[in-house]
Amino acid sequence: MKTDIHGLRNGEYLTIPALNNVKGIVHAFTTRKNNLGARNTGIKLSGDWNVVADTFGINPDRLISVNQVHGENIVQIDDQGLIDGSINPRTVEADAMITNASGIAIGIETADCVPVLLYDPGIPAVAAIHAGWRSTVKKIVDKTVVRMGVEFGSRPQRMVAAIGSAIGPECYEVDEPVMVQVREAFSYWQEIVFSRGKDRWGLDLVKANTRELMKMGLPEQNIHVLGLCTSCHRDLFYSFRAEGRTGRMLSVIMIRP
Rounded CA gap, 246 and 109, in Å? Predict the structure, then answer.
């Protein structure tokens, strides 16, 4: 997949050209260039993504994130950047956000897990999803597509998906307890794994989430994948599997005001 590289005031980010041509949204997948997103303590800081907000032309308090927990909870963000008009999303445990509010950027942080951005041009509405293996087997992308339909009337047939960089199966090894859940979740599990011997498996989370999006009705041509392994490209991305405690990338999308 071809990508476009853009400069930030302090770092760089990637975009998918097919989405750059969509006038209604702006999106970004940040990198580790110039230590963007690096936190030695692993603790979120209030100014982590101010440079991204500045590039999007919004106040930092309109760039929304949640407390990610590798689950399946999905929250709806309103035009004030809140949940239900009063709840600060940053205090909520969730792994996906949806919104139909313009000028609100929603973003999830990753350092190997799969970041998925969704856009329905017919509403318009967007979603940002954090899909590690636990959230993937819990079908978080499926549930997000359904939730967008319930809340906004979104239709998967017109949705566009952008899947950012994540750890690839060549570097992502899982054990048999994980594989038990993978087999239970996906009838096509043999298409997304390969054996490494001794009850160890290489798992392709990007392919799994791509398959789930297609199963939900997104046309294959509407699903765009960056296709770079975070562990293989540590000059460009953070990788928890390869580095241990490290920084995070931000995958973010916003409906233009």
Answer: 12
Task: Report the half-sphere exposure of 9 (CA within 13 A, side-chain side).
Answer: 9
| Residue that is written with structure tokens 């979120």 in the block | 44
Please state, in angstroms and rounded to a whole number, the distance separating the CA atoms of residues 184 and 105.
Answer: 35
Select from 22, 26, 20, 18 the least CA-distant residue to 1: 18
End-to-end CA distance of the chain: 28
pLDDT in tens, the chain (257 residues): 456 667 666 668 999 988 888 889 999 999 998 888 876 555 666 678 999 999 999 999 999 999 999 999 999 999 999 999 999 999 999 999 999 999 999 999 999 999 999 999 999 999 999 999 999 999 999 999 999 999 999 999 999 999 999 999 999 999 999 999 999 999 999 999 999 988 999 999 999 999 999 999 999 999 999 999 999 999 999 999 988 888 899 999 999 99
- Pick from 257, 214, 7, 2: nearest CA to 116: 214
- At residue 130's C-alpha, the angle toward residues 124 and 132, to 5°, is 150
* pTM (predicted TM-score): 0.95
3-state secondary structure of 136: helix
How many helices (H) and strands (E) would you count in the chain?
Answer: 7, 15
Measured CA to CA, the distance from residue 1 to residue 163 in angstroms comes to 11
| CATH, domain range 4-166+208-255 | 3.60.140.10
Are 154 and 125 spatial neighbours (Cβ–Cβ below 8 Å)? yes
SS3 percent helix, strand, coil of the chain, rounded to 5, is 30, 30, 40
